[in-house]
Amino acid sequence: YDIIFFWVARMIFSGCEQMKKFPFEKVLIHGLVRDDKGRKMSKSLGNGIDPLEIAGKYGADALRFNLITGNSPGNDMRFYVEKCEAMRNFANKIWNASRFVLMNLTIDEVKLPEKLELEDKWVLSRLNGLIREVTENLDAYELGVASAKVYDFLWDTYCDWYIELTKTRLNGEDEAAKSTARNVLCYVLTELLKLLHPFMPFITEEIFQALPKQAGSEDRFLMLSKWPEYSEALSFPQEEAAMEAVMDTIKAIRARRAEMNVPPSKKAEVLLVTANRPPYEQGLHFLQRLAFASQVRFADEAPADLSGQVSIVTHNATAYLPLSELVDLTAERERIAREKEKAENGLRIVEQKLKNEKFVSRAPEAVVNAEKEKAAKFRELIAKLEESAKALG
C-alpha cells in the first residue's frame, strides 16, 4: 500500500487521457501479509511464503480462506501456517457434510415443500438472515466478517445441528417427512455453497456439480448462478425463536453433563419448568434424543423438594435432573456462585449504561430498549441462580 496509490493514480490519469473515462470507480487496498512474527516478508530475511507450496499441501481453497478470514479492510495481517490446516479441516467438514446429503438423496430436483417442520423453518429463516447479512458485508467490503459468518453457519448451524436434527426423519418410515428433509437439506446446502463460492471456488463448484438443481433453475455452473437474495416468504421469526429456545436448553443440559463427566449412555429424567411450553412440546423428541433424556416432564413451578436435583438455568426455562449421586455438591455450589457473579457483573455494566444520560438520550430507542431487555434477563437469571443455590442448602 506504500506504492499502490501511485499505481492507482497513474491508471486514472492514463484512462482519462487515452480512453476519456475513469478506468474504475472504487479501489480496495488491502493491508500487507506479514510473517507470523509481524515482520514484512522479504528475500533478505528469508521469511517469504511460497503460495504454490502451501496450496499444494493444504489446498488452494484453504489458502484463500486463510487470507480472507480475520482480515479487516486496510489492516495488515499475520500469516500462520497452522491456520491453513484449520481451513483445510473446514473444507473437509463441508465435503463430509455434502457426502452425507448426497448419500441420502433420492430426488432429481430440489423444491421446497409447503409443509415444513419446526427445524426446517428454523434453518431456512436463519439462512435467510445470513444471506442478507453477508450481502450487506460484501457491499461494505467487509470480506473477513462475511466469510466468518458463512463459516460459523456451515460448521455450527448446518453441520452440527440441522443435519443432526434431520437424522430421525431420514431414518424413519414416513416417506413425506423424508422427502421434506432431503429437499431442505439440499436447498440450504446449495445456497450456502453460493455464499461460500467467492471465498472457496474450487470445492464449492465440485460439490455443486454433484447436487440436484433447484426446480426451474438452468444454472450449469455455480460461478454463473444468481447470488442468493433475502426472501420475506422464508422468514419465520417465531419458529426460529422457538427452536433456539429448545437448542439453548439442550446445549445447557449437555454442557452440565459434560462438566460432571456423565456419559451420554446414562440417560436421566428431565423436569422442565417454563412459562412457555409450546416450543418445548414441539421439540420434545429433540430434547429426549439430544439431551440424553429417558423422559421429559413439564411443570409450572419448581419441585418442592430439590434435594438430589441438579438445576440447569436458561433464559426461557429451568431443567431439573436427578443426578445428585453423580454431583459434587460443593463444586455445584461454587459453579452457581461463579455464574451468579458473572450475571451480576453483566447486570452492573448494563445498569451503568442505562444510568448514563448521554447514552439514553443519544442512542436509538431500539438500542436502549435492547439494553433494558438485557438487564431484565440478567435479573431473572440471578433470581433463578439464587433459587438453585438455596435448594442445595
Written description of the protein model:
- Helix 3 packs across helix 4.
- With 393 residues, the chain is α/β, with parallel strands linked by helices.
- Helix content is 60%, strand content 7%.
- The longest helix has 28 residues, at 143-170.
- It has helices at 4-18, 51-58, 60-68, 81-104, 118-139, 143-170, 175-196, 201-210, 237-259, 278-282, 284-290, 329-355, 357-362, 365-392; strands at residues 33-34, 77-78, 109-110, 213-214, 268-273, 293-299, 310-313, 318-321.
- It has 14 helices and eight strands.
- A hairpin with a 4-residue loop joins strand 7 (310-313) and strand 8 (318-321).
- It has a four-stranded mixed beta sheet, with helices on both faces.
Topology:
Blueprint: H1 4-18, E1 33-34, H2 51-58, H3 60-68, E2 77-78, H4 81-104, E3 109-110, H5 118-139, H6 143-170, H7 175-196, H8 201-210, E4 213-214, H9 237-259, E5 268-273, H10 278-282, H11 284-290, E6 293-299, E7 310-313, E8 318-321, H12 329-355, H13 357-362, H14 365-392
Parallel strand pairs: 1-2, 3-4, 5-6
Antiparallel strand pairs: 5-8, 7-8
Descriptive key words:
single chain; 393 residues; alpha/beta; four-stranded mixed beta sheet; two-stranded parallel sheet; 14 helices; 8 strands
Count of DSSP-assigned helices: 14
Number of strands: 8
| Helix/strand structural class | alpha/beta
Shape: globular
Strand order of the largest sheet: 6-5-8-7
CA radius of gyration: 26 Å
| Poorly predicted runs of 5 or more residues | none
| Series of H and E elements | HEHHEHEHHHHEHEHHEEEHHH
Largest beta-sheet details: 4 strands, mixed
Share in β-strands: 5-15%
Mean pLDDT: 89
User: In angstroms, what separates the terminal alpha carbons?
Assistant: 64 Å
Binned, the helix content reads 55-70%
